């Protein structure tokens, strides 16, 4: 795959990105806590939206600068709006609507999204990790949904957690507000792997390269089908999945991939 480098967003902004060899690396850069302010969420949403139809993007890696991956919503930004005439209600509604759209766009994005987590991921930051298709954490990463500690139940992060973790593990995190280390996060199903901090980016890149080498059409079909059937009953899921398999089999990339396998050669994907 030829090297492609996209325009790099300014590092001083809340989010910046670069594209190389089919891997779009989106970095949260809103120190010190990389909070999901309105500006940060809007910027991240913009990067994801641009990547949807960009054929040069095969895989997305979501990372962060500094010692914290993401501390969740900007509570200072939100609390300052309590002086509004409606006590902040409209601003709170806007914040959670933007956040909900962002998390859903990750799940529904046609490209696989991999979280590269180092440091702390709490509240909506933990939700961000749970929303990604894969998550690889350093051995120094910690996770929590600790809104309960300040009188705010992490209800929206719970949507992502209960879909990725066992319900009792999700409730344990939501009810106690306690942080869990990377090993526990792996046991809970929140992350796929835990690796030494010094090798984190290297290992994530290797994962991303492996995925980027697959058929982009097959990745799109497969990701969409995976999440869609998970919401269905067993019979409906099999009927739907069977239709998707037929659709996939009729694609040129499937024909090429099977021919290449039989012919013992490398496939040449067209994305069709």
UniProtKB/TrEMBL annotation:
It comes from the Bacteria. SUPFAM superfamilies: ClpP/crotonase. GO terms for molecular function: hydro-lyase activity. GO terms for biological process: fatty acid metabolic process. Belongs to the enoyl-CoA hydratase/isomerase family. May play a role in fatty acid biosynthesis and insulin sensitivity. NCBIfam families: PRK08139.1. This is Enoyl-CoA hydratase domain-containing protein 3, mitochondrial.
